[in-house]
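Ticket #4471: structure output looks truncated?

Reporter: J.K.
Steps to reproduce: submitted the chain below (267 residues) through the standard prediction queue, then opened the result file.
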Amino acid sequence: MTEPASGPVQQLAALLAPGELTTPLLLVTALIVGYWLLRVGQAARRSLIPRAALWAVPGLALLLLAPVLDVPALFGLGAALLLLAEYWPAAFVPATRRLDTGWPLVGLLVGGGATVSAWRGGDAVLLAVVGTVLLLSVGGLLSAALFRAPASRAPLGFGSRWKTPVTPPWPELSVTLSERGAHLRNVSGGRLRVAGWSPAGVNAWYRVRTETGEALAELAAGQEAVLPVSVYDSGVRVWYAPARTQATHLFRADWTPPAYAEHRVLN
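Returned output as attached by the reporter:
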């Protein structure tokens, strides 16, 4: 007479019958789980949350159920879900705020209790479902913990380009011309947040950039930026605001275009 299974190893063996869960498959599954969690964490630091990437979790469950239930088609379906989660263009999508940790915590609590029941009852399908809930909950908590809020696309204090600007009584910016363009310099003695600029008389909106092309959100005292004007431009308009204020300021600078300098008439 065979003694009934009592230890954890014997219970797991009974749970996996009639199929067989091999050690290589378990190792591959563990690697995929670690890779998926790593990917979720890295995406959260880039202000991204998983969307199509969530399909990797039920895909893993199907991979494990295929040998347990002796249904090879489940393995192919699970692999397809893993490929979808990895290569779908919208695997991760931008988010503007941190995820709520309520549902992942509930999932961990409920999933933990259901795991015990599934293990004792020897229900492989229920154990796979519970494992899916647990992994999704861990991914949600990881995404919430590592989420980094995205930087504002526009500098603080600028609700719209067409917001009524004011011209300060004393210049806070200066401009000089060279072959590289118009050199914009902060002469205010404090930080200035820059929203954008446009050539005089042109309906355009450009980001203020350094000489190397890096976009600037603010200019420190004495810092300089280069506005790529052409020889036909007759001036620039720069929208900005001093630090710790909400008022939009407008800097105007006009000159005779170098291309027309020979035709200038002095009165």
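Triage note (M.O.): checked the attachment and the full token line is present. Helices lie at 8-16, 23-45, 56-69, 72-87, 102-121, 124-146.
Status: closed, working as intended.
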